[in-house]
Structure formats: C-alpha cells, structure tokens
Amino acid sequence: MNPTLSTSPPGTDSSVIGKYRWTICSLVFFATTINYLDRAVISLLKPYLETEFKWNAGDYANIEIAFKLAYAVGMVGVGRIIDKLGTKFGYAISTALWSLAAMGHALVSSTLGFGIARGFLGITEAGNFPAAIKTTAEWFPQRERALATGIFNSGSNVGAIVAPLTVPLIAETIGWQWAFIITGALGFVWLVLWYTIYETPANSKRLSKAEFDYINADIPVGLPAESVVVEEKPKTSWATLLGFRQTWAFVAGKFLTDPIWWFYLFWLPDFLGKQYHLTGTAIALPVAGVYILSSIGSVGGGYLPMGFIKRGMPAFQARKTSMLLIAFCVFPIVFAQYLGQLNMWLAVLVIGIAAAAHQAWSANIFTTVSDMFPKRAVGSVTGIGGFAGGMGGIALSALVQKRMFVYYESIGQLDKAYFIMFLICGGMYLLAWVIMFTLVPRMEPIKLDADDILPTAS
Fold first, then answer.
1. From CA 237, how far away is CA 372, in angstroms rounded?
2. Closest Cα to residue 359, out of 429, 417, 311?
3. pLDDT of amino acid 217
4. For 388, which of 99, 121, 251, 418 could close a Cys bridge (C-beta 3.0–4.6 Å)?
5. Which of 67, 59, 33 is nearest to 394 (CA)?
6. CA distances from 436 to 62, 241, 246, 359 (A)
7. pLDDT score of 7 more than 70
8. What is the pLDDT, as a whole number, of residue 224?
9. String of b and e for 202-215 (b: at least 16 CB within 10 Å)?
10. Using CA atoms in the order 243, 248, 251, 252, what is the torsion angle rounded to 10 degrees?
C-alpha cells in the first residue's frame, strides 16, 4: 500500500480497520500460546521421564539450563534477524523451526538427547518475543501497545493452561512421545494463518491513510502532533544500543524477573506433585488455575496504565506507577507454603496472583522498549533483554536451584528449597523496579540520528 493515498479500499471503514489490527494481535497471541505450550510440555512429562530415564533433580535442572542457555544465545542475534527479515518472514521462520524442534523430542532416547533437543527448542523459540513486540510496535500506537502486549502475552498463560489439561492425558493414553508430536504440530497450523492474513501496515491493502497515520502517530498524551517517531532508517548496532541507560534498564528488569516466570513454568508441577502428592491428570486443575489467574494479570497489566493515562498521567509515568503496584502484588508468594498447610488451593491462589503479577509486569516492561526506542531498534533491544533474561535464568538454575534442590532433596527436606525460592520470587520485582527507574527516572526517548523525531520529555 502507498500510505500517501487518502482512499480506503471499498467497503472498509475505521471500525473494520480497527478489527484488523486486533486480528493481528490475535495471531501473535496464538503464536505465543504455541510457544509456551511447546516449552511447558516437559514439566508435565517430568514424572514419566524421571521413571524412564532415572532422572534426579540435578538431571532435570541440567536439561532446563540447556534450554535457557540456548534461548539466551538465540536472543543475541534473533532480534537483529527479525529487524532484517521483517516480521512476516522472520516470525514464520522462527515458528517453523521451533515446531520442528518440539516434535523432535519424540525421537530422543537418552538424557543427553533431551539436553540437545531442549537446546534446539530454546534457540529457535527465542524468535517469538522480538517478533511479537516488533509486530505490536508496527501495528499499534503508543497508547494501545501495553494492552496489545498484555493480550498477546497472555498467550504464554493459555499455553501453560492447555498443557496440564492435555499433556498428561496424551501421555497416559498414547505415550509421552505423542505429547511432543501433537503440540509441536500446532505451529504449522499457525503458519498457514499467518501467511494468509498478515501484512505489515505499509504493505496492507486494508489500510486508509488515516489509519496508517493513526498507527504511526506514537504521540504520548499531552504532546503536540508534530512530536512523532518517523520511521525507519538504517539498523542500529548493539554497541550503540548498549551505550544507552534505557537499554540497561530493560536488561536489568529482564535479568531479574524472567527467571521467576521460568521457575513457575518448569518447577510448579513438581512443587505441587511433591508437596501435595498429586500425580498424572490430578495435577491439571491446580496448574491450570495458576495460569488462568496469570492470564487475567496479563490483560489487566495492559489496562492498568491505560487507566492512569486516561486520568491525565503521562504514559511513561503511568507505566512506572503500574509496575511498582505490580511488584508489590508478587510479595505474598512468600506465604505460599504456610497457606498451603491450611488448604492446597490457598497456595495455588497466592502463586497464581504472583504469576498474574509477573505477566502484568511483562506487558509493561516490554512496552517500555517501544516507548523509548524507534521502531527499527525495537527487535534488537528486545533481543538484548531476552538474552539477559536467559542468562538470569541460567544463573538462578545453576547457582541456586540445581545445588539447592539436589541438596535438600538428598536430606528429605525439599520443602525448604521451595521456601527459599518463594522468598527470591517475592523480592525480585521490587529490586528490579528500583534499578530500572534509578537508571531511567523519567521519559527519555532515544534519538539515534537526525531522522528520529522524538518527544523530548514526559
């Protein structure tokens, strides 16, 4: 499409175009659902695989580390690849590769093989969030991005909800290998929809000039119309991006908080199984309950800053305030085991609230990137943050979980290991908030060159 044209295709109007924007968001939601479904499968199959391959807590931690290391390595370059290839082709390639990697787990016959398979899955799954954030930045103006991000990011919860409701059942009826094959094959269904529906705004035949201008306005509340980001010139090197405090704020937030979500994803079924002696399909409802709550948090995290913005608060201040409130919502997880002694569902509730808070945090921390960086750098900065999150996950697994869980398991006091982990979960978001907003206390958008016309303050 030529954005200088002022006419819309026959039969279109702004409401139809708005629906198309949210259709794009739905596609990204679907991809994120599959992404997390594929990575969550192994946590539900852990009891079956422990029996077949004689794993202990250290073996499982090593396999988890293999995934995180590969994911972090993938993040080193995947953002720049997405920036170079564009969202349509880059997202498609990433999804096809991680779907093949997920299905490949069915061919594994050793513990080492699982480590290798998880590595391939990690490096290919790294493409989802840089592509998703870039797609959101392309299709949504600033004021809508946190909500759009919250909606697509809730796919990570839906994937984690679908997994416990289906994977144990598949494993018990037709074998654990088919759980990997069936869930992995869903990515190819998404590929058909993606290539049938998706185009970038500049190439879309569904957009009028008015809608194109609306998407690209990026005007924070209270700033004049001329204060917009003008897209999109040469790519920017990592060395340049790492010279900005804004990049390091995002890096710090991801490094400290991403590992907490991975702890829920990879260890929650084990916690519920060991703490409350749940097996097989009995674990499905409590695990699904945690992620149902987290889905609410993901979308709610997008709405929260919008409410502040509507009351006249500048966008960045709204994001900052929302993230502080969200960080406080995680803290009650330190009481999970105490409450669980009264009733298992009380433990599920506080863990679910913490998981919901993480997803609300995630919706906002991702949006800080598109708030502060020109669109051409969004994929790269997201990739840098994703790498930091992966390295944080590796550090937590290698330095805390692996040693601690093996030790306490060997002396029959695994509950103490989980208590320590819940303490870490409870405090990490407040620490991340302090570091992030010490580095960037107010809105300071990045001006990469003379062609980036950006607001000066907010």
1. 16
2. 429
3. 67
4. 251
5. 67
6. 30, 16, 8, 17
7. no
8. 36
9. eebebbbeebbebb
10. 160
